[in-house]
Amino acid sequence: MERSSGIFLHITSLPSKYGIGTLGKASYEFVDFLDKSNVKIWQILPLNLTSYGDSPYQSPSNYGYSYYLIDLDILIEKGLLKKSEVNKVKWFYEEDRTNFEIMFNEKTKLLKLAFSRFNKTSKRGFKTFLKENKNASDFSFYMTLKTLHNFRPWNEWNLPYSIELEKRVKKENKDLYEFFMWTQFEFLDEYKKLKKYANKKNIKIMGDIPIYLAFDSIECYKFPQMFEFDEKHNPINVAGCPPDCFSETGQLWGNPLYNWKYLKSTNYKWWNERINNALNLYDLVRIDHFRGFSAYYSIPYGDETAINGKWVKGPGIELFKDKLDYPIVAEDLGFIDEDFEKLMKEVKYPGMKIFVQGILNSKEDSWRAPNFDKTHLIYTSTHDSETALEYYDELTEDKKKLMIENVKEDAKYFNIDFKEEISREELEKLMIEISYASDAICVITPMWDLLELGVEGRMNKPSTLSTSNWSWRMEKMQFEKNKLRIARFLNNLNTKYRR
């Protein structure tokens, strides 16, 4: 990775008149904005279809891309929908939030209507896609079964997987199965055109690989040998993280854990394909919870908290020894021990640091900006943390003063001018400039921080279920009002600090 900068904004968060950001016009306009800002990386969240809880980290399939991101105006241009049909839907509950219930009910209906007008016989590309895309086929088979079972998870079907069952379901429900295949075909067509447009402007897209899969997924249903399941197909242990200063009982994520012994016997075939597929889709990839490859936290299935969990050794360098030159970013946040530090040195992937989470520490601390080096990307905040201003707003008055003094101290180190009397918005701009001035290999600034948003810009609160999680959207007027100011600000920083 070269010295550079980027902006973090998931596609769902783009402005849209149809209730969710899509791969259409707003995406292209955002690429133009990145270009004017002289920013070279657009970081997004996983593109997977969301399920219960709306999290892109909990999907029915590793390879199932979210058809909610398909652009309706593009379908109108293709003659598959009419404007009047699209405009009948009441898309907004709250302008700045995505309502996934509307996506699930109304947008899916429109997509099925579009598919009914899609002339399969004249689309040679789709015929080939039907025959050759095994991953899309697995996703479509599973979604067909979920639809037939009122979207309940597979463990409530009383229907064990078999090759014969898969063939029969595809044959007897051909239209439904091919509808889901078409959503993947259309999604990839729109996404690849957008990526080509971004790449022509020398902008790279950074994608995201969740380390774990959802229990309600085709992988757990069809390939149980990959997971720590008992003979009845129930999890033995599940994922999470231990108690810490943020939570006395730890975090119980509940995802099935991998059967690393089995995966090793296959020479990690599934993981190799997963990473290679991601790098065919994106220009570079962030791997979530990279710490779990050194050792992962294993919690007995059925426990209500993470207290009784334990650390278990993971595959380590063995999984990555032939991928050392891959464009991978390792999310290395959380509990760090010597084994994990060793793994990070072996793979040499850049890690991550969050500016605000170190700003109250001493000036010698590695999380303070003067001590950042080329081994890390620096973020003002992330999708799982408070926005930078939310973090500031929730501090006590004494800690607010300490934060301001430490930011000023870092600014002096980099010879950055600042006012003695500083507003919270000016403080945030100063934090961003300090990040740009640092030796961090890349600075990624989330759009909510560039828009100077507090708690109203929060994307997700980990270990909670809420309709506000994953649903934040940037309003069109909000973007239009601020984009020229932000573009000039970032362009100046990129020029000044040679990013």
What does this structure look like?
With 499 residues, the protein is α/β, with parallel strands linked by helices. The protein has a single domain (4-350, 441-496), classed as Glycosidases (TIM Barrel, Alpha-Beta Barrel), CATH 3.20.20.80. Helices cover 39% and strands 11% of the residues. The chain has 17 helices and twelve strands. It has helices spanning 25-36, 72-77, 83-87, 100-116, 124-132, 134-148, 163-172, 174-200, 218-222, 260-265, 269-281, 338-347, 388-393, 397-413, 424-437, 447-450, 476-496, and strands spanning 4-8, 41-43, 204-209, 237-241, 251-256, 284-287, 295-300, 310-313, 328-330, 351-354, 376-379, 442-446. The chain has an eight-stranded parallel β-sheet with strand order 9-6-3-2-1-12-11-10. Strands 5-4-7-8 form a four-stranded antiparallel β-sheet, with no helix packed on it. Helix 1 (25-36) links the parallel strand 1 (4-8) and strand 2. Helix 6 (134-148) crosses helix 8 (174-200), helix 7 (163-172) packs across helix 8 (174-200) and helix 14 (397-413) runs parallel beside helix 15 (424-437). It is globular and about 70 Å long. The chain starts with a strand and ends with a helix. The relative contact order is 0.13. The model has no long low-confidence stretch (mean pLDDT 95).
